């Protein structure tokens, strides 16, 4: 089974036997990968009918639901990890969704493309919206409505009492350590709520 480059980075943080909720799970390949590599169990959340069928074929437990409506059907701290892989930028209400993820999950893993990647900057300087492997859509058909750089996301976390436990910046399958906001095209973050926020979210 083919896997996206960030799957291995996500898997290294998921402890064996973890209970996982994958938001916007698409075709279910990430959950299947985590089941095979880490013996993880859990559910995917997806809205697209075609993806639901593919999830079932991949042996993934999937629930059809619109993430924009929140995660009220799940109890606080009911999953070890809540994962949102390359979906955050397509959400309308990011603050609400991140709060819900932190409420439902003991930890959260978020992956997002970097609008500040150097090739994207060059395309903007040339007068065009960026198109790349991680941002493959044209300006007129993109589902992405909240693009950000890594720095933008990290400021968001600080301002919303989200603790960044670890970050892995990447380009293709290579980890980027030098100037990641310039040379990394994708990042994987491991997050949790700070102590006070955790109490408020679970109340």
Please describe what this structure looks like.
The chain is an alpha/beta fold and 203 residues long. It has one domain: Vaccinia Virus protein VP39 (Rossmann fold, 3-Layer(aba) Sandwich). Helices cover 33% and strands 25% of the residues. It has 8 helices and 8 strands. The N and C termini lie far apart (41 Å). The model has no long low-confidence stretch (mean pLDDT 92).
Describe the strand arrangement of the main beta sheet, using strand numbers.
Answer: 3-2-1-4-5-8-6-7
CATH class annotation? Alpha Beta
- In the CATH scheme, what's the topology name? Rossmann fold
Following the backbone from N to C, one meets helices and strands in this order, namely HEHEHEEHEHHEEHEH
Q: Distance between termini?
A: 41 Å
| Integer tally of domains | 1
Q: Which structural class do the helices and strands define?
A: alpha/beta
Instruction: Characterize the overall form.
Output: globular
CATH H level, superfamily name: Vaccinia Virus protein VP39
Helix content: 25-40%
Count of DSSP strands: 8
Strand content: 15-25%
Q: Tell me, rounded to a whole number, the average pLDDT.
A: 92
CATH architectural group: 3-Layer(aba) Sandwich
Uncertain stretches of 5 or more adjacent residues: none
Biggest pleated sheet: 8 strands, mixed
Q: Roughly how many Å is the radius of gyration?
A: 16 Å
Number of helices: 8
